Amino acid sequence: MVFRTIATTAAILVGLALTGAVAGPQWDPVPVTDHLVPATEDTAIGGVAPDAEIGEVGEFEVRETPVTVPLGAGVMVGGLLRQPLGDDGGVLPDRPGVVYVHGAGTGKSTQAFTESATALASAGIVTLVPDKRLDTYTTRDRDYLAMADDYLRSVDLLRTVDGVDPAQVGVYGESEGTWIVPVMQAKDPLVAYTILVSAPVVPPRQQAAFAVDSYLRNTGVPEQVFRAIPRAVGMQLPGGGFEYADFDVRPWLEQQTAPVLVVYGTADPSMPIEQGARQVIADTAVGGDEAPVTVRYYAGANHGINVPLDGGMHLHPDFARDAATWVQGMPGTADAPPRIAGDTPNQLYLASAVPQPRWWGNGDIVVGAVVAGAGLLLLGPLVWGVHALVRRVVLRRASADAPRLARGLRSSLLGLGIGSVATMVALVVYLLAVARLALDYQRDDLVVQGGWIAVRLLGVATAVAAAFVIRRVADARAQRRAGADVAVARGWPAVLTFWCTLAGSLALLCTLAYWGVYQLGI
Questions:
Q1: What is the value of pTM for the model shown?
Q2: Which of 59, 116, 371, 519 is the most buried (most CB within 10 A)?
Q3: For residues 260 and 280, is the Cβ–Cβ distance under 8 A?
Q4: Residues 6+ apart with CB under 8 A from 262
């Protein structure tokens, strides 16, 4: 009996492992072997003409003025204009201007880019941070082309501001905003320059997979967990939408005609910091040499080019200096050597196309399988319980002909149902715990390694319960063939409970196999 149970359990585990292997793609990112080597650690911008008037950060007083940006069709957003002031308190004449484009999430002009916009303004550059338009921006739906049109209204407004040289107005984008900025420059070639800070360059789906991989590696998760990356990121998410996940900015980069400053922090694990710079250089060269590219890497800087300073995270001081010099020193600074300078980046893997799941590529199916499985596990026992209550209280029937399961099958089914639910809950809790550690950029081997072992042990225990169910069913059928009055399930409530438990558990076990709980190196 013990040997048969072990053999049956092993067969179940192998079957689930095979199911998980064929149900979706593997994850095998390509290592970066050809690394970028900056020409110098000094990020200072060269090419400044001897007679150029280059303001330094902190040189000028800054005046902040709330503004309203009309977007058309009666829609307006607020904004915050920062202007450098001369010794007489008046605005400086003929200054370059910068419009800021927000990254992902909400963006209030009074809260976003405060250090950057103020620093550039104090160096002599007029800055405008508009509020992000949110009525057309959701987690599920985003239109980067329409967003580019909206932000170009801020460019138009800044060109009319007193003291701004309209021919020297450029755009600064960060993170998600760097998918929008190249569209803006292609649509309006009069945009004088663009600054791309922490630019993914690759489509959002590829960047998401890259970021998840990077965060998980830092957290130290077991290798088996990585299989979940293409299955989660590559699937069609539940409820549809998210078409922007495959937005490709490269055709817009190929249309650039203005100088580009590309900036990364080498402590930013979420961006392909070497691949992104290479891609911008390559794509902007497609149309010729009209869009020179300057690349800077800042040591210890994170996604927002912030570093630990004065007990908090603040903008890297060299970045503000360099950006101000680059903007004010045009055109000499646009293509001045060195093109690539700063801290040495170390991107481990390429951000590549995400393999698409096959059978479970639709997120609605994945969610539906879990909901249906849990519902079936609840349905059978619930119906049986109601039926038993009605028999006992209302009909007052004897228990001799009550529904029943074969000997030992009830406890085995109970173990199978509880085990499959418990394993699913444990997997969700584990993934949430790992996500919290990853986002906080922390490691906890007890949670990461121990938690995964616990989830897999629960999965194995559930497989053992499934083996007991199979053995109980086989024994009951063998006894029936021998002439005994034995049935696997007697009475429709028992039959319903039996099949609901099997179907519900199978749905959850296949889902667990899909997410890698039953991997055996297959």
A1: 0.89
A2: 116
A3: yes
A4: 196, 199, 276, 277, 280, 293, 294, 295, 296
Cβ atoms of 217 and 147 within 8 Å: the answer is no
- Give me the amino acid identity at 133: R
User: Distance between CA 242 and CA 133 in Å, rounded?
Assistant: 18
Q: For position 237, what pLDDT does the model report?
A: 77
* Token pair in block for residue 323: 């950006």
Q: What is the pLDDT of residues 379-410, one digit of tens each?
A: 988 887 887 777 776 656 655 567 778 788 88
The closest of 199, 163, 416 to 296, measured between CA atoms, is 199
Take residue 507 and report the two structure tokens written for it.
Answer: 């749905």
DSSP count for the chain of H helices, then E strands = 14, 13
Contact call for residues 165 and 94 (beta carbons, < 8 A): yes
Beta bridge partners of 265: 298
* Cα–Cα dist 31/214, whole Å: 12
pLDDT digits (tens, 9 = 90+) for 72-104: 888 999 999 999 999 998 999 999 999 999 999
Pairwise CA distance, residues 265 & 175, whole Å: 12
For residues 126 and 93, is the Cβ–Cβ distance under 8 A? no
Strand order in the sheet with 260-265: 61-72, 75-85, 126-130, 95-101, 164-174, 194-197, 260-265, 293-298, 340-342
d(CA 409, CA 243): 48
Task: Give the DSSP per-residue string, 332-353.
Answer: TTTSPSPSEEESPP---B---P
Q: Give the helix/strand (H/E) hosting 68.
A: strand 61-72
Q: Count of CB atoms within 10 A of residue 10's CB?
A: 13
61-201+253-342: CATH class = alpha beta
Distance, CA of 204 to CA of 317 (rounded, Å): 29
* Of the candidates 87, 82, 85, 92, the residue with the CA atom closest to the CA atom of residue 112: 82
Cα–Cα distance measured from residue 375 to residue 508, given in angstroms and rounded to the nearest whole number: 11
Tens digits of residue pLDDT in 484-514: 777 777 888 888 988 999 999 999 999 999 9
Angle between helices 317-328 and 114-122 (to 10 degrees): 50
The domains of the chain are located at: 2-24+357-514, 61-201+253-342
Contact 336, 210 (CB under 8 A): no
**In whole angstroms, how large is the CA radius of gyration of the chain?**
31
Give yes or no for a contact between 413 and 498, defined as CB atoms under 8 angstroms apart.
yes
DSSP label of 516: T
Structure tokens at 182: 């190249």
Q: Distance from first CA to last CA of the chain, Å, rounded?
A: 28
Which residue's entry shows tokens 């402590």?
Answer: 267
CB 517 within 8 A of CB 459: yes
